[in-house]
């Protein structure tokens, strides 16, 4: 079965015409699973909307226009225009073949500027590596009716046989080979070499800028594509990062209502949240609220949203900061008491909402990252902030990363806090962030401490991660004599990496306690190593992931972040007894999975974690 993007759920089917639905269901049923099909998604930078784009590794790229015209509707044809009789009278439209041809030529012109998508030698040097074509499906007109209404010589010019599919020539029961032959007869030439997976990803990277990872500003993404080819080639990356097909399909298929995404670390949950913000910012009038528990992650998300040019529409808050903002906006005082100020803040907001001092339904949509760290009364509070008219809510969580709670699992049902997502939960099992070696090491360590369960209270299975990333060097774990030795080792690794040309912004050093962070920060200052030490609330809120400096932060604060290279220190000083053992193990798992490719761990203590982590010498020849 072909992969249809967005998936053919109720929301997608509802916005299709009846003819588009029949074509989509036919494509899904009769094309094999190596076909990719996109429906009504804007392409490239001019944001044009072909009805269907079909991509096959061996066949190439095909653009289909679908028309539900009836025989009596079609009055006159030329090579460029169609005259239709409608309820509004005579209407002139672009000929659908010309429409599809324009889509194809614009996309092909864009793809042809990428050297990695062109033949490097031979008779086709400089030409695109894949065939392309276009065609039209008339869903309510038969081939016989067309033949009866115009001479053959006119049909050959205006509606060429090989470019047309008519009513009765497609359905879910159509013979697959016959239907596919109709599609590929729309191509004028063929190449024998199938596209590689990197080439397919590059095609998607060009067609759909919104699914790029670490993409530039939105104003750049949707700029005029007709600039000098040399300028475009200079900006093309050698290695692209893009959502995989499952992530893209999920991001485009979320639809309306309440949705839950339960995924392992590194499965792209936060990236999907960012894409969802881009989509909602274009469709909703009311502001969009994004909440998370980690201050540092909130700063990173805020920077991402701002870079996409939607900061005015999307408000990103650490949960307790949002509570404080609500109290200030509506002039509500925090009552005196013995509990911590942040807890009394939350209670004050809950009470003010109940009394009507703070209004409900302030936002067109609510998106919650790190849902596993949210308490029941917090969720019950923020769910009320969604406008019932739009009723758009997205919750993302990963139970294995729940480091702020004593026990695994949410501890309550989602329905009990007002989240109505039964049957609308997506599971992401594949980890795309870490190398296979890092993921295997991290999960192998964590499984000794994290209790496996069949499912949570909402019958959502707790997910064991599956590696989908590339292979890389084995993690390195060093047993040292003292914390001073850990500092020496850390600084030596940083010096070696810098001498090899590694950018400091790609390095994160994670520590267990603030005292350890302060010691390392002083040492880095002494060694003249630029770094961002996220040791205070203000420093966390000002975090800049693009700064040319190493990032130094607690393992707690690293949640939701990632670095090419991670060094973890202070492991031997972490608590490893009683209830705290599982909590510390979960925290270590989070820290390990922040590393995309290189993971170093230093330990000078004698706790159980130090003994569990086995020395692994060398790091692929690069310390």
From TrEMBL:
Q: Which Pfam families match?
A: AAA_19, NERD, UvrD_C, UvrD_C_2
Limits of the NERD domain = 18-114
Q: Which UniProt keywords apply?
A: ATP-binding, Helicase, Hydrolase, Nucleotide-binding
Residues annotated as domain UvrD-like helicase C-terminal: 428-535, 551-600
Which chain positions lie within coiled-coil regions? none
InterPro entries named among the record's database cross-references: DNA_helicase_UvrD-like_C, DNA_helicase_UvrD/REP, NERD, P-loop_NTPase, UvrD-like_helicase_C
Biological processes per GO annotation: recombinational repair
Annotated protein name in UniProt: DNA 3'-5' helicase II
- Organism per entry: Parazoarcus communis
Q: What is the lineage of its organism?
A: Bacteria, Pseudomonadati, Pseudomonadota, Betaproteobacteria, Rhodocyclales
């Amino acid at each position: 079965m072909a992969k249809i993007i967005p998936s053919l759920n109720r929301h997608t089917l509802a916005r299709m015409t009846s003819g588009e639905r029949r074509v989509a269901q036919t494509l899904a049923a009769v094309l094999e699973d190596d076909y990719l099909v996109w429906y009504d998604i804007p392409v490239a930078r001019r944001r044009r909307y072909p009805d269907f784009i079909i991509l096959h590794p061996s066949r190439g790229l095909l653009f289909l226009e679908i028309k539900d015209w009836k025989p009596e509707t079609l009055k006159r044809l030329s090579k460029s225009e169609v005259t239709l009789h409608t309820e509004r009278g005579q209407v002139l439209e672009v000929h659908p073949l010309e429409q599809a041809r324009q889509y194809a030529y614009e996309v092909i012109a864009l793809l042809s500027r990428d050297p990695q998508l062109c033949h490097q030698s031979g008779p086709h040097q400089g030409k695109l590596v894949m065939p392309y074509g276009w065609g039209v499906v008339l869903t309510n007109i038969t081939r016989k009716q067309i033949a009866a209404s115009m001479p053959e010589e006119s049909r050959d010019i205006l509606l060429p046989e090989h470019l047309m599919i008519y009513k009765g020539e497609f359905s879910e029961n159509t013979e697959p080979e016959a239907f596919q032959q109709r599609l590929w007869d729309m191509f004028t030439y063929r190449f024998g070499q199938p596209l590689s997976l990197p080439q397919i990803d590059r095609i998607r990277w060009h067609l759909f800028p919104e699914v790029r990872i670490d993409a530039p500003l939105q104003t750049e993404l949707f700029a005029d594509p007709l600039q000098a080819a040399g300028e475009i080639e200079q900006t093309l990356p050698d290695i692209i990062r893009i959502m995989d097909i499952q992530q893209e399909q999920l991001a485009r298929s979320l639809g309306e209502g309440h949705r839950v995404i339960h995924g392992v670390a590194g499965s792209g949950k936060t990236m999907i949240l960012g894409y969802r913000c881009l989509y909602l910012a274009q469709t909703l009038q009311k502001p969009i609220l994004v909440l998370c528990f980690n201050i540092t992650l909130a700063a990173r998300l805020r920077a991402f949203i701002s870079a996409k040019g939607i900061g005015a529409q999307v408000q990103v808050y650490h949960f307790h900061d949002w509570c404080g903002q609500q109290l200030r906006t509506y002039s509500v005082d925090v009552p005196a008491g013995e509990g911590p100020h942040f807890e009394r803040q939350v209670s004050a907001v809950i009470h003010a909402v109940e009394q009507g001092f703070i209004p409900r339904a302030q936002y067109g949509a609510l998106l919650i990252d790190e849902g596993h760290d949210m308490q029941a009364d917090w969720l019950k509070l923020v769910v009320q902030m969604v406008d019932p008219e739009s009723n758009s809510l997205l919750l993302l969580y990963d139970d294995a990363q729940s480091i702020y709670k004593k026990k695994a699992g949410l501890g309550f049902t989602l329905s009990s806090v007002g989240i109505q997502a039964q049957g609308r939960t997506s599971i992401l099992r594949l980890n795309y962030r870490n190398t296979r070696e890092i993921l295997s090491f991290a999960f192998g360590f964590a499984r000794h401490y994290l209790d496996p369960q069949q499912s949570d209270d909402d019958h959502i299975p707790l997910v064991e991660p599956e590696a989908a990333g590339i292979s890389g060097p084995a993690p390195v774990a060093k047993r040292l004599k003292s914390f001073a030795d850990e500092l020496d080792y850390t600084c030596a690794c940083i010096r070696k990496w810098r001498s090899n040309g590694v950018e400091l912004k790609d390095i994160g050093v994670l520590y267990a306690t603030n005292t350890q962070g302060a010691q390392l920060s002083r040492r880095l200052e002494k060694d003249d190593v630029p770094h961002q030490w996220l040791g205070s609330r203000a420093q966390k809120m000002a975090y800049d992931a693009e700064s040319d400096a190493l990032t130094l932060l607690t393992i707690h604060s690293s949640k939701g972040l990632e670095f090419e290279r991670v060094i973890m220190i202070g492991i031997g000083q972490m608590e490893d007894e009683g209830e705290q053992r599982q909590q510390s193990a979960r925290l270590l798992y989070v820290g390990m999975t922040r590393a995309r490719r290189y993971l170093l761990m230093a330990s000078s203590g004698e706790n159980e974690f130090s003994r569990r982590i086995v020395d692994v010498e060398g790091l692929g020849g690069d310390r």
